[in-house]
Amino acid sequence: MKIALVHDWLTGMRGGEKVLEAICELFPHADLYTLLHIKGSVASTIEKRKIFTSFLQHLPDIEQKYRYYLPLMPQAIERFDLSEYDVVISSSHCVAKGVKVKDKTLHICYCHTPMRYVWDMYPVYFEKASIYVKILMKILRKYLQKWDLKSSKRVNYFIANSENVGKRIQKHYHREAKVIYPPVDTDFFVPSNPGVKSKSYYLIVSAFAPYKKIDLAIEAFNYLKYPLKIIGTGQEEKKLKKIAKKNIEFLGWVSKEELREHYQNCKALIFPGEEDFGIVAVEAQACGTPVIAYGRGGITETVIPIQDRPDTPTGVFFYEQTPLALIEAVKKFETLEEKFDPYKIRKNAERFSKERFKIEFKKFVDEKIKVFFELD
Questions:
Q1: How confident is the model at residue 132 (pLDDT cuts 50, 70, 90)?
Q2: Tell me, what DSSP letter sits at residue 59?
Q3: Cα 211 to Cα 260: distance, rounded to the nearest angstrom
């Protein structure tokens, strides 16, 4: 059968792109459709296939300001002609699931989340926006919500990346979803040899988007004065660097090997935002590293807080998204650090392996193909 893959945009290797990479490995001959592709920004497994982009690719300053073109994204995704394909698999956190397909085409959507900007996280994204942006989004929000709900009906089967997102799909789209956790490369992300380096710093790995709450962590570590390294970039970079004190170091994006080394050699990963799943937290645990996290969202499915399981903890939760709550969580971790066993932390992460994802995902797709096309 002829298969097409659809992904929102290709601008870097974040969680959604790591899922797409594994799907590409399962379907090596599938064509790939996306709104925007910055060449060289994603893994070679994705880069080397045939990639079709939308008219957004040619708009002014698109690579830096693609988020500003959100109002045009529904129209752009609907323009793709997928009539020649038997199966369409979309990987969607924005509009990818809104592609139009014929009745004879099976559409399976791996949903990272319903569109955050217009549903649950609308206040977080736009609370600090200019008055003009707020007015514009107030007008656009109802249109985008209406389109998002309508386009969800084009999907035959939903897969959610967590129970957390499954509930959101039910809430907004009124659809059931099979939960298949994202792939984490637990073969690559492994603990270092004991005692190779002293663990003297804390670590954040994140894009710099408002809902990630990196500013909250910076405020906390400005007070604590503990060393904090931050891997990542994004639209809030200038603002974050401006408020950070000398104990906080910005590293930009780093190679996969450097990322692993930082996971291995930090005291703990700091995870201040509410995520749909949070692949970064599992990568850190695969390296035997504990996680200090805001205890809401997908993180509650991947990290075992010491508050609940003092015998086999993999992290510490804080339950108010404030600098003070994070400060208290870090101090609590410092007093209980010896209770975190790297072997047990690693063991928890192994249940999210890439191989497990590929087996579960391929089985689901094969089953739905058989049902949809009435194959014996």
A1: confident
A2: S
A3: 24
* Amino acid letter, residue 321: Q
The answer to whether 229 and 253 have CB atoms below 8 angstroms apart is no
Residue type, 117: Y
Structural domain contains residue 89 = yes
The boundaries of the domain holding residue 361 are 3-183+353-372
Residue pLDDT, tens place only, 137-174? 888 899 999 999 999 999 999 999 999 999 999 999 99
Mean of the pLDDT values across residues 95-118? Answer: 95
How confident is residue 197, by pLDDT bands cut at 50, 70 and 90? low
Indicate whether 172 and 263 sit together in one domain. Answer: no
Task: Confirm whether 197 is domain-assigned.
Answer: no
CATH (domain of 26): 3.40.50.2000
For residue 376, count CB atoms less than 10 angstroms from its CB and return exposed for 0-12, middle for 13-18, buried for 19 or more. exposed
Over its C-alpha atoms, the chain yields an Rg (Å, rounded) of 21
Instruction: Return the amino acid letter for 84.
Output: E
For residue 223, tell me if it sits in a domain.
yes
* Distance of alpha carbon 41 from alpha carbon 270, whole angstroms: 25
Rounded to whole angstroms, how far apart are CA atoms 116 and 130? 19
Strand pairing report for 202-205 and 106-111: unpaired
Q: For residues 40-48, give the mean pLDDT.
A: 94
Q: What is the C-alpha separation between 364 and 239, in angstroms, rounded?
A: 44
Task: Give the pLDDT of residue 268.
Answer: 98
Q: Is residue 41 part of a domain?
A: yes
Q: What are the DSSP calls for 8-41, one per residue?
A: S-BSS-SHHHHHHHHHHHHSTT-EEEES-B-TTS
Query: Among 315, 345, 312, which residue's Cα sits nearest to residue 333?
Result: 315
138 and 124 in a single domain? The answer is yes
Domain match, 28 and 173 both: yes
pLDDT in the model for residue 196? 53
User: Is 227 in the same domain as 108?
Assistant: no
Question: Looking at the structure, do residues 146 and 11 belong to the same domain, yes or no?
Answer: yes
Alpha-helix runs per DSSP H in 225-349: 237-243, 256-265, 279-286, 323-336, 342-349
Q: How many domains does one find in the chain?
A: 2
Give the torsion sign (CA, 228, 233, 68, 293). Answer: negative
Secondary structure class of 51 (helix, strand, coil):
strand
Task: Say if CB 264 and CB 346 are below 8 A apart.
Answer: no
93 lies in the same domain as 207: no
Alpha-carbon distance of 68 to 265, in angstroms, equals: 38
